[in-house]
Design a protein that fits this description.
The chain is of the alpha/beta class. Helix content is 49%, strand content 18%. It folds into two domains: 2-158, Rossmann fold (3-Layer(aba) Sandwich), CATH 3.40.50; 161-345, Dehydroquinate synthase-like, alpha domain. The strands form three sheets. It has a six-stranded parallel β-sheet, sandwiched between helices. A two-stranded antiparallel sheet has the order 6-7. The chain has a two-stranded antiparallel ribbon with strand order 9-10. Strand 6 (128-133) and strand 7 form a beta hairpin. Helix 5 runs parallel beside helix 6 (161-178). 39% of the residues are buried.
Length: 348
């Protein structure tokens, strides 16, 4: 898995596949915004066959029904193993496209071209692919690495503020599990200018951190679990809203998950309250609009706990959390139903 920052280097990697079919998987929004720009680069090279598949935009379409539609299109075109899927889009596209590549014809090559901040620093890297099933987040999936990842920061220049903030949630997660000083640096520089040297360094630093953790623990048996901070409650919240008429992004869910998992650390007496208060203050300085969604969880406690018991990281019938202990991160914090009910349900 290579991270590439320039098109000419990317296409040097892809040159050896000139006799392969090329499938571009994207959504309608990204297609309308970027497909001409992307094709200007890719059509400099001659391929056996190039085909574009567009899907609807949104987390609700990351499901088995979308997979079946894509499989039918691939079969109709008689697409064989000599094929590369180029996933052009955000986290939904890279998750879905990676999953399809991992099981179609027992596995074909795929490359990721992430177009959102969140997918650049997190979703497109690491080989975790998946779809939502039965209103549960990423319940079906695979570990299957992309051959190459092209990071084109020009895609970030047209992002809406809400999409930038969604990606910022993952940066905040990284900073809290690695180094609290990085959290302060992000808060100070949160007004984004992606041509800014500081942001270039921050993004590359966190990308390299994730690559390092994946190299040590690809299958998420130990140290890679650090990256799940904020995601146990965050994924439960997303899962709940998959079945309800309420829009919440992955980044929003993660930020809310981070805040409540920090609060859980206080209740377990492993985090000083003043640290939690400072982090919460800084987060709501940026995510002011999330305060209502943050408070709504108080009325969803029963549903959130129910969804948490389907989490992939659980051990036996207990919920496995990644938590902050003062200013350090720990994984494998196993809480049984009774403890969780007492700490989360009764005291929130």
């Amino acid at each position: 898995m290579n991270i590439i920052y320039q098109y000419n280097l990317f296409f040097q990697k892809i040159k050896k596949y000139l006799n392969y079919n090329i499938i571009i998987l994207t959504n309608i929004t990204i297609y309308n915004l970027y497909i001409k720009y992307f094709l200007l680069n890719i059509k400099k090279y001659v391929y056996k066959y190039l085909y574009i598949i567009k899907i609807y935009d949104g987390e609700i379409y990351k499901n088995i029904y979308t997979c079946i539609k894509i499989f039918n299109k691939l079969l109709k075109k008689k697409i064989n193993r000599n094929t590369i899927i180029l996933n052009l889009g955000g986290g939904v596209i890279t998750d879905l496209g990676g999953f399809i590549a991992s099981i179609y014809k027992r596995g074909i090559i795929f490359f990721n071209i992430p177009t959102s901040l969140l997918s650049i620093i997190d979703a497109s890297i690491g080989g975790k692919n998946g779809i939502n099933y039965n209103y549960l987040k990423n319940e079906i999936g695979s570990f299957y690495l992309p051959n190459n990842i092209l990071i084109d920061k020009n895609f970030l220049l047209s992002l809406k503020k809400k999409d930038i903030l969604s990606g910022l949630s993952e940066l905040i997660k990284y900073s809290l599990i690695i180094n609290y000083k990085l959290f302060i640096l992000i808060i100070i520089n949160y007004k984004f200018n992606f041509s800014n040297l500081i942001w270039n360094k921050i993004l590359k630093y966190f990308i390299n951190i994730k690559l390092y953790l994946i190299k040590l623990d690809y299958r998420e048996n130990n140290i890679r679990k650090f990256l799940n901070f904020g995601h146990t409650i965050g994924h439960a919240l997303e899962s709940y809203y998959l079945n309800n008429n309420f829009n919440i992004s992955h980044g929003e869910s993660v930020i809310i998950g981070i805040l409540y998992e920090l609060w859980l650390s206080i209740k377990l007496n492993i985090l000083k309250k003043n640290i939690y208060i400072n982090i919460k203050k800084f987060i709501f300085k940026i995510f002011k609009y999330l305060y209502i969604k943050y408070n709504i969880i108080k009325y969803l406690k029963k549903h959130i706990i129910y969804k948490m018991f389907y989490d992939k990281k659980n051990f036996n019938k207990n919920i496995n959390f990644t938590l902050i202990v003062n200013k350090k991160c720990t994984y494998n914090n196993i809480l049984n139903k009774n403890i969780l009910y007492k700490l989360f349900y009764k005291n929130i």
